[in-house]
């Protein structure tokens, strides 16, 4: 009988990828990024180990919101923690004023919650423009527009 080998934290390989968010629908972009961050695209995927890769997202301001989401979809924030402290912003406002937070929140919603999910979320780097600070890691360009 063949034994399945599980990935250990020490043996996990972490690669770097660059994704261009220009004209890619937000939900499809977030789900594909979440799969890469968790490592589900690798044959060595282990659910309880952080075996995913690092992802750099460029041009967050140019992400595509389909349908009537820019006007009707609400993003909720309980800023104060008190009753009545709930604030809302539409996705259109988020895209114009806070595009980095829009992508980070949509990816976070697709990651596991808890200690592992927080460590996975730290491997996501989102930038508004086409420049990034991780040139030293020699990231590979991924095309998620298909």
Q: Would you kindly provide a brief summary of this structure?
A:
The protein has 146 residues and is of the alpha/beta class. Helices cover 28% and strands 18% of the residues.
Layout of helices and strands, plus pairs?
Blueprint: E1 16-20, H1 26-38, E2 54-58, H2 69-72, E3 74-78, E4 86-90, H3 91-97, H4 99-108, H5 115-121, E5 124-126, E6 140-142
Parallel strand pairs: 1-2, 1-6, 2-5
Antiparallel strand pairs: 3-4
Helix pairs in contact: 1-4, 3-4
Describe the structure.
By secondary structure, the chain is an alpha/beta fold. The protein has a domain at 16-66 and 100-142: Ribosomal Protein L13p, Chain: A (Alpha-Beta Complex). It is 28% helix and 18% strand. It has 5 helices and 6 strands. The strands form 2 sheets. The protein has a 4-stranded parallel β-sheet with strand order 5-2-1-6, with helices on one face. α3 (91-97) packs across α4 (99-108). It is globular. The N and C termini lie far apart (40 Å).
Brief descriptors of the model:
146 residues, alpha/beta, Ribosomal Protein L13p, Chain: A, four-stranded parallel beta sheet, two-stranded antiparallel ribbon, 6 strands, 28% helix, globular
State the CATH topology of the domain at 16-66 and 100-142.
Ribosomal Protein L13p, Chain: A
CATH first level of the domain at 16-66 and 100-142: which class? Answer: Alpha Beta
Task: Give me the Rg, rounded.
Answer: 17 Å
Q: What proportion of the residues is helical, as a percent range? A: 25-40%
**Average residue pLDDT:** 93
- % residues in beta strands: 15-25%
Under the CATH scheme, the architecture of the domain at 16-66 and 100-142 is Alpha-Beta Complex
Ranges where pLDDT stays below 50 over 5 or more residues in a row are: none
Q: Which descriptor suits the 3D outline?
A: globular
Oligomeric category? single chain
Q: Give the distance, in angstroms, between the N- and C-terminal Cα atoms.
A: 40 Å
Structural class: alpha/beta
Major sheet description: 4 strands, parallel
Query: CATH homologous superfamily of the domain at 16-66 and 100-142?
Result: Ribosomal protein L13
